[in-house]
């Protein structure tokens, strides 16, 4: 890469060395290459100034924050990004909330951000934009005359053609995405949906080299399944738990779930499936516990308040009906947990229960596998609807709408012989290693470097 790398994401990490998969990987990439990370800082409430503001430690690369007004927060972030695009991409058109103000806020923030980035970008720089908050950013940068490479990576599922109808007409994903050089998606199924969208678009053509021709430019669409920082996670999980009392309290058959409290994660059905498992188990002396860690997220959005109430009611009922004086079947923790402790909790859990209705990838599935003891691994029960299921086919795959099937999978997982657990673990672990997040960002950036937006003659004959 000749110029510098500019990463754009909704949030910017404020810690000198951020913890956690994706943020850590991007931090490491920028630390090696130098460059700029642009994002909004939750602590930075100033009204949007014309230029980006330097924040945090600037030693290895620069961190530049953009400000959001209260109106931007309501319309761009809570509104269009999280009450329109998020539900559409997660097949929940019924939860979409429409407002012209949302669209205006989304366009306003993307336009302003493009201007702010244009001030610091040179033509040989590469801009890597992350996620659904910024679909139109490349279009806005192109309007300003930026001719350099711009890549996009979507972390959440690419919507099905039928679901795109729930977007306002002006929000044309095809038009917006065509202004990038390379669109990265999580899975092959996402790529298929994205190509289907382009195929149905007047003026877009699929070229011989697999790229999309749109107007006088081309865009590449490819899958880059994201992963975790495997070595760090394995090493953390191996260290013994510091709190001996906690380790003793958590003995027995622990089933673990770890998710942001989001309606896409399928938590109510997970609780129901666990309740069904308790009801139907033949050995009543066997006391499995579900440890569900679900920190709050986007609590100002009504759909998130509703899911919280539903879960609290379900948890109360499940414990009321099944608990004994010395046994609480469901422990439901509504806050963040230190990642070191999280890795150890995964390791002691006999089952990792990951049952989203829709999920771009789901890193918890990969973290659970990486944390296991290879000599005595636990079992991953994984929704077929998670991107992770495309390659982790040796997990126990379940339909997250089918309570009975999930309850049976729990029984199977808790009774699985050692040899089968090891075989399944090894197959899943091979996939986790193959998608290590460091390699993911290298692969993406190298493909972006090789991409070319302007039409070349060898790609000219179209396949319709
Ligand atoms: P998320 O929807 O946030 O990510 P996921 O991939 O599971 O979903 O990542 C969550 C991360 O947060 C994991 O690293 C997990 O350990 C951590 N986490 C969750 N609950 C926690 C808690 N209580 N305490 C501490 N840490 C917690 C989006 C998409 C996914 C996609 C990722 C990455 O929705 O589909 O896999 O981006 O691309």
Describe the structure in your own words.
- It is an enzyme of class 2 (transferase).
- Keywords: Glycosyltransferase, Transferase.
- This is Alpha,alpha-trehalose-phosphate synthase (UDP-forming).
- Its EC number is 2.4.1.15.
- The strands form two sheets. This protein has a ten-stranded mixed β-sheet with strand order 3-4-2-1-5-6-7-10-9-8, sandwiched between helices. A six-stranded parallel β-sheet has the order 13-12-11-14-15-16, sandwiched between helices.
- It is of the alpha/beta class and 464 residues long.
- The protein folds into two domains: 5-227 and 439-457, Rossmann fold (3-Layer(aba) Sandwich), CATH 3.40.50; 230-435, Glycogen Phosphorylase B (Rossmann fold), CATH 3.40.50.
- α8 packs across α12 and α13 crosses α15 (418-434).
- The mean pLDDT is 92.
- It is globular and about 70 Å long.
- 42% of the residues lie in helices and 16% in strands.
- The relative contact order is 0.12.
- A hairpin with a 2-residue loop joins β9 and β10.
- Adenosine-5'-diphosphate-glucose (ADQ) binds next to α1, α12 and α13.
Percent strand = 15-25%
CATH H level of the largest domain: which superfamily?
Glycogen Phosphorylase B
- Bound ligands: adenosine-5'-diphosphate-glucose
End-to-end Cα distance: 33 Å
Counted up, domains total: 2
Mean pLDDT: 92
User: In CATH terms, what is the architecture of the largest domain?
Assistant: 3-Layer(aba) Sandwich
List the helices and strands and how they pair.
Blueprint: E1 5-11, H1 21-33, E2 35-40, E3 53-54, E4 62-66, H2 70-89, H3 100-120, E5 126-130, H4 137-144, E6 149-153, H5 161-164, H6 173-178, E7 182-185, H7 188-199, E8 204-206, E9 212-214, E10 217-223, H8 230-238, H9 244-249, E11 254-258, H10 267-280, E12 289-293, H11 302-322, E13 330-333, H12 339-348, E14 351-354, H13 363-370, E15 379-383, E16 396-398, H14 403-414, H15 418-434, H16 437-450
Helix pairs in contact: 1-16, 2-3, 3-4, 8-12, 10-11, 10-14, 13-15
The protein binds adenosine-5'-diphosphate-glucose.
């Amino acid at each position: 890469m000749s110029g510098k790398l500019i990463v754009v994401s909704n949030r910017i990490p404020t810690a000198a060395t951020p913890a956690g998969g994706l943020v850590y990987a991007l931090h490491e990439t920028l630390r090696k290459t130098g460059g700029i990370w642009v994002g909004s800082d939750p602590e930075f409430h100033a009204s949007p100034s014309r230029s980006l503001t330097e924040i945090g430690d600037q030693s290895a690369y620069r961190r530049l924050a953009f400000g959001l007004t209260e109106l931007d927060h309501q319309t761009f972030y809570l509104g269009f990004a999280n009450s329109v695009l998020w539900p559409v991409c997660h097949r929940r058109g019924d939860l979409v909330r429409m407002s012209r103000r949302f669209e205006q806020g989304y366009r306003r923030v993307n336009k302003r951000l493009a201007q702010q980035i244009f001030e610091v970008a040179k033509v040989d720089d590469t801009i890597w934009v992350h996620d659904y908050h910024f679909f139109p950013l490349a279009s806005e940068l192109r309007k300003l005359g930026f001719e350099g490479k711009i890549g996009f990576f979507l972390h959440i599922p690419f919507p099905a053609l039928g679901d795109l109808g729930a977007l306002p007409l002006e929000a044309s994903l095809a038009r917006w995405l065509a202004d990038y050089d390379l669109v990265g998606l999580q899975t092959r199924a996402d790529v298929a949906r994205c190509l289907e969208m382009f195929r149905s678009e007047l003026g877009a053509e699929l070229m011989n080299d697999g790229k999309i021709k749109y107007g006088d430019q081309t865009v590449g669409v490819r899958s880059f399944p994201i992963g975790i920082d495997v070595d760090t996670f394995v090493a953390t999980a191996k260290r013994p738990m510091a709190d001996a009392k906690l380790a003793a309290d958590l003995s027995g058959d622990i089933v673990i779930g770890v998710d942001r409290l989001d309606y896409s994660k399928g938590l109510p059905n997970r609780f129901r499936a666990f309740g069904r498992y308790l009801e139907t188990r033949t050995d009543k002396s066997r006391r499995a516990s579900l440890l569900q860690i679900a920190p709050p997220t986007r609590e100002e959005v009504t759909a998130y308040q509703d899911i919280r109430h539903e879960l609290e009611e379900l948890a109360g009922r499940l414990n009321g009906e099944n608990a004994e004086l010395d046994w609480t079947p469901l422990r439901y923790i509504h806050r963040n947990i230190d990642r070191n402790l999280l890795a150890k909790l995964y390791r002691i859990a006999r089952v990792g229960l990951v049952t989203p209705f829709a999920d771009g990838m789901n890193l918890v599935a990969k973290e659970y596998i990486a944390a296991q003891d290879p000599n005595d691994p636990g079992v991953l029960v994984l929704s077929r609807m998670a991107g992770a299921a495309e390659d982790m086919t040796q997990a126990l795959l379940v339909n997250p709408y089918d309570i009975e099937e999930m309850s049976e999978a729990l029984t199977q997982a808790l009774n699985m012989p050692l040899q089968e657990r090891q075989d399944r673990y090894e197959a899943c672990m091979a996939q986790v290693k193959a998608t290590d997040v460091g390699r993911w960002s290298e692969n993406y950036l190298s493909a972006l470097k090789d991409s070319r937006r302007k039409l070349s003659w060898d790609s000219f004959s179209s396949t319709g």
